[in-house]
Input
Amino acid sequence: MVIKTAEFVKSSAKWQECPEPVLPEYAFIGRSNVGKSSLINAMMNHKDLAKTSGTPGKTQLINHFLINEAWYLTDLPGYGYARVSKSLRKDFEKLITNYILNRKNLVNLFVLVDARHTPQAIDIEFIEWCGENGIPFSIVFTKADKLKPNVIITNVENYKTELLKTWEDLPEVYVTSAEKKTGGDEILKFIATTNDFLKQNAVSFD
Output
């Protein structure tokens, strides 16, 4: 997929305030500091489309971007902030879960995981929650440039092994690096193929 246009649409503090659900939507989420904004910018070939910050938890709203005037990319707040109050963390969690469970044009959720770490309980729990609620999702490993190829393979396999303790089949898995701009093309190819399928089958979100 060639990115011709990528424009910010709006930020929403509630899922009900999101743009009209008339286009396919693909959302990105992960723990704070997983490199979400950097990956989005690399995929869109846009230096500062999604705002990056050295402060974890900077994304606190649902941010919508219109891509090629055909589909929405949604930048969601991260889960599991360590540096905010419990009440604020609950507000974030409520915002995220309400969006995911109620947004009827959400086609796929990309769950970002830091490739440098062993399986983290908070990531596993969120992935399990997606499965329990029937949310279509993919797993995206980030920051692959920080590791040697054999270490990345080992870490990814460790995650798969952990998930297969409770899953019969695993979703699509992508390994990415925002720094080297790798892996994003595979995600965009998936989105393009899915959009073609939706169009050919005249899928409506009304």
